[in-house]
């Protein structure tokens, strides 16, 4: 007997065994995909992780359906790394597999329903619903389940389908669908009969009266003279300012011939820079220190102030690894950043740079996956957000984690809830590669590791080209409101500074970490605030859509004209978001162009590009945005940064609130004055004497680090303790309360460490599910693996209790 061990893309912790024939047994290798039956009638794409001859004891092994790959598309190192992620972050291996693979490589069975051709159907015998389905099948050969749901406009359609199957009208067919299609591009060439000089004069004679067609032919000659490569239909139409209909007419006349070529979707055109990158003295010193630290240590932290030229050092290091023929992975926290960086890296490395993140569509992601797998020249350097970690590297030499302090490196939902920085260090370890963490404001854990000599540490304290650090000014909002020196949410100081900067033709960035117009709408008569129906939060007012929206589940209603509770019409908004700041700016500075960058304005694949390029090309004078603006973007004409309200970050119920606020404010400030002139930063706050705000004003990272470390030790937080957070969710409030209490008691009795909870979080209901959290703090000296095993055992016994089975528990390890 021959068997394969596979993982399925489902949230299942175990692997499954299927039987294969002897021929298949010798053909299949680890890392290939198979289509396998699972459950009653579903077919899934499974991944082979082992081939063996041990018959499963608990069930009969089913046979596989088909083999989907000719050679492995997942490497053995990847499988090992995924298994590490599953065990460390306490999630199912199936979750990791589903999260890691581009979804186009995970074919799922789309249940297709078609009409049986052999039977005669008496239409008068059909019910209304059955008739609608029957009619639809007269128009197309088969329907998918979701299409029938749409036709009948109801969710539960299975009884209808079942009846029609019983009446012998319909048949089901499970069908695998390959969703990746190579992109074909249409090119044009001149018909061969016009190749000679005589042919050309004939051609011009033919087109004597057809002016538009003549224009296109002339444009074709111009293009083929200036460019020595084939010409696409699109390019020709653009160049001639014409339409594809006229090109079609020329093809019909047999003047042009068209042909199709398969083409990579993500292509780079442009020259690579010939000259060598020149590092400054300071940069060069840092470059050498990093290389020295790599002799002994696997990981090095580069702590350089904002605008100290970290990217150039990265480029220099990458050059070295490329010379050794290694692959390089460059991780960034935010898709918005990849946009800018890709341009900078491609200027040096040309077509060796590939990009991988979730705004790319399926086909593009599969392309990059295959390029990395085949160690193609096009993907020697991969830039991406956290998901790029899962690519099939064969020869990885170097990983850069830029802005390593960012919380976006930690995936929150769905599982695997991994931290890309930590997972990257483990991945590098598998590949015997080196890791460089870069940040102007490193996270306390990383800095702690560097200080305790687990990682190397290299520091740069001055900006590139000796540019001064920005001058930071604090504005006391209490005082300004008291003296009536505020216009809307702007203090007189900020207005004066914006006016000065704009009049000099410089640009301004304003930071407000809330999107929408205002976070709540309140009735002035009875105090009622409209809430989301499914979550315990007030609805955020979005003015340009004139609606109230829930930022947790997307529920929205039109803005009410009167109070839902007491029918008073006296409604007012409280608090402010980016949209409101943008509107105030328009009235305060009518001559300036104001842009806004937040989740509402950056929808779509090129959303970020449009805004960032627009701002770089000076189409906007003032840019308002949320924390997307805070990270690593490089604008050379920004001389002023305003932080609208520094306090709303400080008072989050989170042990990292002060660290995060410091990082966020330092990063935003770092966007100011990046070329010759010293930049300015205005921070508006109700609490100018707060330690953290003072530390930002004096650029005192060390002070913030010491103070936070002291607190962390007393209150048992990372880096002294590891935190595991369990979140329990259930629609029934009482059941959840009882289950959470049961789990907490079992844990606090069996674990010799602090267990806190069960706590009702600030937002205790999302999408109609109530939430409770339990936090386990694991001291540095106790075995983390052993503790996790114990926790897992308790969760298994929790799951075995019948009345708690409906409670969903999600585990967040190293809860950041």
Query: What is the name of the CATH architecture of the largest domain?
Result: 3-Layer(aba) Sandwich
Strand portion: 15-25%
Total separate domains: 7
According to CATH, what is the class of the largest domain? Alpha Beta
- Round the mean pLDDT to the nearest integer and report it: 88
CA-based shape: globular
DSSP helix fraction: 25-40%
Task: Say what oligomer this is.
Answer: single chain
Present the secondary structure layout:
Elements: E1 2-7, E2 16-20, H1 22-27, E3 33-38, E4 42-52, E5 62-63, E6 66-67, H2 76-88, H3 93-100, E7 110-115, H4 128-139, E8 142-144, H5 145-152, H6 158-166, E9 170-175, E10 183-190, H7 197-206, H8 211-226, E11 231-232, H9 233-240, H10 244-252, E12 256-263, H11 281-296, E13 299-304, H12 310-323, E14 327-331, H13 335-349, E15 353-356, H14 362-373, E16 381-384, E17 396-402, H15 420-431, E18 434-439, H16 444-451, E19 456-460, E20 471-476, H17 477-482, E21 486-487, E22 490-491, H18 492-503, E23 507-511, E24 520-523, E25 540-542, E26 547-549, E27 556-558, E28 571-574, H19 578-588, E29 594-597, H20 607-616, E30 622-625, E31 638-643, H21 647-650, H22 657-669, E32 680-685, H23 691-697, H24 701-714, E33 721-730, H25 733-750, E34 755-759, E35 765-766, E36 769-779, H26 784-800, E37 808-813
Parallel strand pairs: 2-5, 13-18, 13-19, 14-16, 14-17, 15-16, 17-18, 20-32, 23-30, 23-31, 29-30, 31-32
Antiparallel strand pairs: 1-2, 1-4, 3-4, 3-6, 7-8, 7-9, 10-11, 10-12, 21-22, 24-28, 25-26, 26-27, 33-36, 33-37, 34-36, 35-36
Helix pairs in contact: 2-3, 2-15, 8-9, 11-12, 22-23, 25-26
């Amino acid at each position: 007997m021959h068997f394969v061990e596979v993982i399925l893309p489902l949230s299942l912790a175990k692997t499954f065994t299927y039987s294969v024939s002897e021929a298949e047994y010798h053909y299949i290798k680890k890392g290939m995909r198979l289509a396998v039956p699972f459950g009653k009638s579903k077919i899934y794409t499974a991944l082979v992780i082992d081939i063996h001859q041990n018959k499963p004891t608990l069930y009969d092994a089913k046979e596989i359906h088909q083999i989907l790959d000719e050679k492995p598309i997942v490497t053995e190192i990847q499988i090992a790394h995924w298994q590490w992620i599953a065990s460390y972050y306490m999630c199912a291996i199936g979750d990791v597999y589903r999260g890691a693979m581009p979804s186009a490589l995970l074919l799922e069975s789309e249940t297709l329903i078609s009409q049986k051709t052999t039977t005669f159907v008496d239409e008068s015998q059909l019910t209304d619903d059955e008739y609608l389905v029957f009619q639809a099948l007269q128009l197309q050969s088969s329907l998918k389940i979701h299409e029938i749901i749409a036709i009948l406009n109801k969710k539960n359609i299975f009884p209808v389908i079942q009846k029609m199957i019983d009446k012998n009208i319909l048949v089901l067919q499970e069908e695998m669908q390959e969703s990746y299609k190579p992109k074909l591009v249409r090119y044009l060439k001149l018909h061969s009969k016009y190749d000679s000089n005589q042919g050309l004069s004939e051609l011009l004679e033919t087109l004597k009266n057809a002016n538009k067609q003549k224009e296109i032919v002339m444009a074709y000659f111009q293009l083929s003279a200036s460019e020595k490569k084939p010409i696409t239909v699109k390019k020709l139409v653009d160049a001639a300012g014409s339409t594809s209909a006229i090109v079609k007419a020329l093809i019909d006349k047999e003047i042009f011939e068209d042909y199709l070529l398969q083409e990579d979707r993500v292509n780079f055109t442009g020259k690579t820079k010939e000259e060598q990158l020149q590092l400054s003295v300071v940069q060069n010193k840092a470059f050498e220190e990093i290389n020295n630290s790599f002799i002994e240590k696997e990981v090095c932290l580069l702590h350089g102030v904002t605008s100290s030229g970290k990217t150039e050092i990265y480029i220099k290091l990458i050059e070295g690894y490329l010379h050794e023929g290694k692959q390089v992975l460059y991780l960034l926290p935010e898709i918005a950043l990849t946009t800018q960086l890709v341009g900078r890296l491609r200027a040096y490395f040309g077509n060796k740079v590939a990009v991988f993140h979730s705004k790319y569509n399926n086909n593009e992601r599969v392309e990059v996956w295959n390029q990395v797998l085949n160690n193609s020249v096009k993907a020697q350097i991969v830039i991406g957000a956290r998901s790029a970690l899962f690519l099939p590297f064969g020869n990885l030499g170097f990983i850069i984690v830029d802005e390593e302090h960012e919380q976006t490196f930690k995936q929150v939902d769905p599982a695997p809830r991994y931290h890309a920085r930590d997972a990257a260090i483990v991945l590098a370890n598998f590949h015997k590669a080196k890791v460089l963490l870069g940040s102007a404001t490193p996270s306390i854990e990383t800095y702690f590791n560097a200080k305790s000599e687990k990682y190397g540490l290299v520091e740069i304290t001055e900006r590139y080209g000796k540019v001064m650090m920005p001058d930071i000014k604090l504005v006391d909002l209490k005082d300004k409101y008291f003296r009536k020196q505020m216009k809307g949410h702007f203090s007189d100081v900020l207005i004066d500074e914006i006016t000065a900067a704009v009049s000099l033709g410089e640009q301004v960035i304003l930071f407000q970490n809330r999107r929408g117009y205002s976070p709540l709408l309140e009735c002035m008569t009875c105090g009622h605030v409209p809430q989301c129906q499914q979550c315990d939060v007030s609805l955020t007012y979005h003015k340009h859509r004139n609606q109230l929206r829930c930022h947790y589940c997307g529920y929205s209603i039109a803005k009410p004209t009167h109070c839902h509770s007491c029918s008073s019409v006296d409604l007012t908004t409280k608090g402010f978001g980016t949209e409101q700041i943008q509107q105030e700016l328009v009235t305060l500075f009518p001559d300036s162009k104001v842009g806004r960058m937040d989740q509402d304005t950056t929808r779509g694949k090129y959303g970020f590009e449009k805004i960032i390029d627009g701002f770089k090309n000076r189409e906007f004078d003032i840019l308002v945005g949320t924390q997307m603006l805070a990270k690593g973007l490089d604008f050379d004409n920004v001389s002023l940064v305003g932080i609208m309200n520094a306090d709303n970050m400080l008072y989050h119920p989170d042990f990292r609130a002060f660290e995060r606020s410091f990082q966020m404010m330092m990063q935003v400030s770092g966007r100011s004055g990046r070329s010759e002139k010293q930049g300015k930063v205005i921070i508006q706050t109700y609490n100018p004497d707060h330690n953290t705000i003072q530390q930002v004003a004096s650029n005192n990272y060390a002070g913030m680090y010491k103070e936070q470390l002291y607190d962390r030790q007393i209150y048992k937080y990372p880096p002294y303790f590891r935190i595991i957070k369990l979140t329990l969710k259930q629609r029934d409030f009482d059941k959840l309360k009882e289950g959470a209490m049961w789990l907490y008691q079992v844990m606090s009795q069996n674990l010799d460490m602090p267990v806190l909870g069960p706590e009702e979080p600030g937002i205790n209901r999302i999408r109609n599910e109530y939430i409770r959290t339990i936090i386990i703090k694991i001291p540095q000296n106790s075995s983390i693996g052993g503790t996790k095993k114990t926790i897992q055992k308790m969760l298994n016994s929790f799951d075995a209790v019948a009345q708690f089975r409906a409670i969903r528990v999600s585990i967040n390890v190293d809860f950041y």
